[in-house]
Amino acid sequence: MVDNNTYWSPSRTYEFEVKVGNYDLSNDLISLNIITSVDLPYQTFLMTFFIDPVDFITEEIFGQKPIKLITKLLATEQFPQETINFELMYLNSNMDMQTQIQDPSTQQKDRTQITISAVSRSAYITMNTIVNSIYQGGLVNHAINSIVSSVGASIKYDPNGRNDQTIDQILIPPSTLYKTLKYINRTWGIYNGASAIYCSYDNVVHIKNMTNKMKQAQTFTLYQLATDSDNTETIDKCNDGKNFYTTVPLTTKYEGNSVFALLAPKQIYIVKPRDRLFQNIDVNLEAFSKEYGLISKNNTIFFDKQALKTDTRTSIHKDHTGYEVDSTFINGNMSEKIAGVTELNASVERSMKILNLMNVGECVLVTSKTNEQDRLAGKYILRTSEIRFNKSKDWESSAVMNLIRTNRVIT
């Protein structure tokens, strides 16, 4: 139910409640950005208020209390379509100190913009909890489940393509949960493919095999509409949180030569099994990219094969002992480095359900009605999303998405 201090109209699509302790900042909020990424352990929030700085000082809003944020996508006055509750931890803010003394008799506020940056509180606590343990003769996924459970968080762990090698001893040195999960992937490999590791606002640790996600059904579809055609049917279905559309140009980036020059088209890993002095594991980066990259249909990898020859450009790795002759640690780490050879940036504007837009690491199907760009369509992985809300008369929303895959074209 919308409170008595607000109104509802057919154009009103969002409502936000913001409280720090008992102090209500809802009416002072003028913008909100929610940033989610597979490269970050938890979500970041930027909230801008139009408020008198004296109120911040008087109410002692200095970060010692959680920030309660509730977002509502409204269908009618009585029935929100989507309600999400966040509990945030204040990180920092900037404000100007006044040079004039206010006259209390006028009760006039000297308002200015103050932006607070914050993170999901429960996710921050979870990912920064220190863990330390030893596991004998077990699987990597058993160790991960045990570690996450020990900090009191839930886990959503993609079962596809997991490292199924039995490890004699998994030694977890004292470190934060997030660094520990990265350490496990770096040392043994979590998947035979690129992994995404982050904790969502509801205190669920997500571990995803992005390479395998490209082979599954998309979480949502993004349509690039042609401005000179009838798009009514497509627009009408883009209100369910599973379909979105854009009429603005998509921006794309490809860096095949840069990545192959940096990593080298041929790689040699010198590992140290228990029953021999050493063992070489050879990796052809082009073949590796086709098997373990983020591939949509056509697995052709474009790079200058004359300038970047395998017999003249080789990288040798000797500092990782490996585990026997298993190559999962290579597959898990190298695949992340070639995952984003192709990038696609898209923006959408309109009232939208936002939960799927925060579901990074998932597969997105891009469909273009512009014939010339069909080859750049297909499946991508949602790497980063920034959802933006700005208040004019009513709340207006938009979102910017960074999508990645390894191959350039689908045909």
Observed structural traits:
14-stranded mixed beta sheet; globular; Phage tail proteins - horseshoe like beta roll fold; single chain; 4 domains; alpha+beta
Describe the fold and architecture.
- The chain has 411 residues and is of the alpha+beta class.
- It folds into 4 domains: 14-96 and 106-123, Thrombin, subunit H, CATH 2.40.10; 127-192; 212-254 and 341-388 and 396-405, Roll (Phage tail proteins - horseshoe like beta roll fold); 257-337, no CATH class.
- Helices cover 18% and strands 39% of the residues.
- It is built from 9 helices and 22 strands.
- The strands form 4 sheets. Strands 1, 2, 3, 4, 5, 6, 7, 13, 14, 15, 19, 20, 21 and 22 form a 14-stranded mixed beta sheet that branches.
- The N and C termini lie far apart (50 Å).
- The relative contact order is 0.15.
- The model is unreliable at 1-11 (pLDDT under 50).
**What is the CATH superfamily of the largest domain?**
Trypsin-like serine proteases
Overall outline: globular
List segments where confidence is low: pLDDT < 50 over at least 5 consecutive residues.
1-11
How many extended strands? 22
Give the class from helix and strand content and strand pairing.
Answer: alpha+beta
N- and C-termini, Cα separation? 50 Å
Structural domain tally: 4
**CATH topology of the largest domain, what is it called?**
Thrombin, subunit H
Named CATH architecture of the largest domain: Beta Barrel
| Mean pLDDT across residues | 91
Number of H- or I-type helical stretches? 9
**What is the top-level CATH class of the largest domain?**
Mainly Beta
Measured by DSSP, the beta-strand proportion falls in 35-45%
Task: Please give the largest β-sheet.
Answer: 14 strands, mixed
Helix content: 10-25%
Radius of gyration: 25 Å
